[in-house]
Amino acid sequence: MKIIKGFCFLAALAVAAACNQPAKQQDTAKVDTTAAAKPAAEAQVADTGNTSDVFKAYIALKDEFIKSDPAGIKTAATALEGKLSGIKGCSETAAVAHQISNAADIKAQREAFLVLSKDVIALVKGAKFKSAPIYVDFCPMADGGKGGYWLSATKPIVNPYFPEHMKECGTVKEQIN
Asked: What are the residues facing 172 on neighbouring strands?
């Protein structure tokens, strides 16, 4: 029984850490995420009850990137921001979703989506909620050749970073669930 409680505690810390990752700064006009990190003992346990809703909102946002619709992206990012705000410890990730909703063009939106995807992937991995398989996809061409990850509910690759020119560029790196 102690082992199970210990495992649950570690899983809860992993979920909290997933949303507390500092966001990669894209430029000086974006949100400053350099606040001092809290010690592990003070870390807030994330509410995983709505992680499924966050995943659904993330997929809706990814689908808007595939359509290359800046207005749709702004709407979906605002919805995702609301879902992330409902999880303790995810305020920085919600701020990145807010950046997407306020970005002036689709290029800036996609740059922020790189950061957002890393945080949401960590959150979903840590939550271990029941769902159909979730795929972690990777495009080596995204982010100026550094590569970029995203989540998908389907196995075939549909790249949100280059949907016009390289829609099938990428590979499935991992299956969650």
From this structure: 137
List, for residues 121-175, the tens digit of each pLDDT value: 999 998 877 778 999 999 999 999 999 999 999 999 999 999 988 999 999 999 9
What tokens does 45 get?
Answer: 């346990």
Cβ-contact 124, 15 below 8 angstroms: no
pTM above 0.85, yes or no: no
Give yes or no for a contact between 130 and 49, defined as CB atoms under 8 angstroms apart.
Answer: no
Residue in 172, 161, 166 with CA at minimum distance from that of residue 116: 161
Any idea what the Cα angle at residue 174 is, between residues 109 and 66, rounded to 5°? 30
For the chain, the DSSP string reads -HHHHHHHHHHHHHHHHHHTSPPPP-STTS----PPPPPGGGPPPP-GGGHHHHHHHHHHHHHHHHHT-HHHHHHHHHHHHHHHHTSTT-HHHHHHHHHHHH-SSHHHHHHHHHHHHHHHHHHHHHH----S-EEEEEETTTTTTT-EEEEESSSS---SSSTTT-TT--EEEEEE-
Q: At what angle do helices 106-127 and 51-67 cross, to 10 degrees?
A: 150
Question: Is residue 117 within 8 Å of 61, Cβ to Cβ?
Answer: no
Residues 6+ apart with CB under 8 A from 142: 114, 148, 159, 161, 162
